[in-house]
Amino acid sequence: MKKSTAMLIGTVTYIVFFLYLLLVIKVLLFKFGPIEFKALFSYMSSSLSSPELIRERLLTRGNLIPFHEIRNYLANLIIGGNAISNVNFIGNIIAFLPFGFLLPFLQQQKNRSFVKVTFLSFLFSLCLETTQLLASIGTFDVDDLLLNTAGGMLGYVGYKLCRLFFTHRPQKSIAVQERTV
């Protein structure tokens, strides 16, 4: 591949990843309303001035018990129950698939590990969940952390499968190539 083509692909990948991050932040933090960072920081400042309210919100509305909501999501999926619950369960995974898929393209070859992508998926999810808690625009849910991280992990598996497919395709034999000409 030519160096200019590789640079173009790299630039496009950075742009796509940046747009993906903006979309995730928009959907998870601002839902489907306008992006208002000034309001977000105002909410966070207000919350940080009253740490007891953060604790209360976390304990009364948040979920700190791993797999508590995941069990509910799975039960709903099996019985075909609450559609919103199903969308939340599957959406948390799907939302982070691009993160795990695109991130390795942006990293140097030696840094493209499953463990690093998993850790960064967890860290990005933790930042989003913590922002929701501090800005009082959602609830902190440890199961969201698990599902988002799982989505990042599955995205990385997709990345590896694509790399395997596109870098190790068998070459047609010369005889087969000559017959097709």
Structural class: mainly alpha
Q: Let me know the number of strands.
A: 0
Mean pLDDT equals 88
Report the order of strands and helices.
HHHHHHHHH
Helix content percent band? over 70%
Structural domain count: 1
Number of helices: 9
Report the sheet-strand fraction. under 5%
Low-pLDDT segments, ≥5 res: none
Give the biggest sheet.
Answer: none
Distance between the amino and carboxyl termini: 24 Å
Radius of gyration: 21 Å
Outline? globular
Protein name: VanZ-like domain-containing protein
Keywords: Membrane, Transmembrane, Transmembrane helix
Domain VanZ-like: 17-162
Transmembrane segments: 7-30, 89-106, 118-139, 145-162
How would you characterize the overall build of this protein?
The chain is mainly alpha-helical and 181 residues long. It has one domain (3-180). The chain is built from 9 helices and no strands. It has helices spanning 3-30, 37-48, 51-61, 68-79, 83-94, 97-106, 114-135, 142-167, 174-180. Helix 1 runs antiparallel to helix 6. The model has no long low-confidence stretch (mean pLDDT 88).
In short:
Helices cover 77% and strands 0% of the residues. The chain is mainly alpha-helical and 181 residues long. Residues 17-162 form the VanZ-like domain.
Question: Which features would summarize this protein structure in a list?
Answer:
mainly alpha
Please give the structural blueprint:
Blueprint: H1 3-30, H2 37-48, H3 51-61, H4 68-79, H5 83-94, H6 97-106, H7 114-135, H8 142-167, H9 174-180
InterPro entries: Teicoplanin_resist-assoc, VanZ-like
Organism: Brevibacillus choshinensis
Keywords: Membrane, Transmembrane, Transmembrane helix
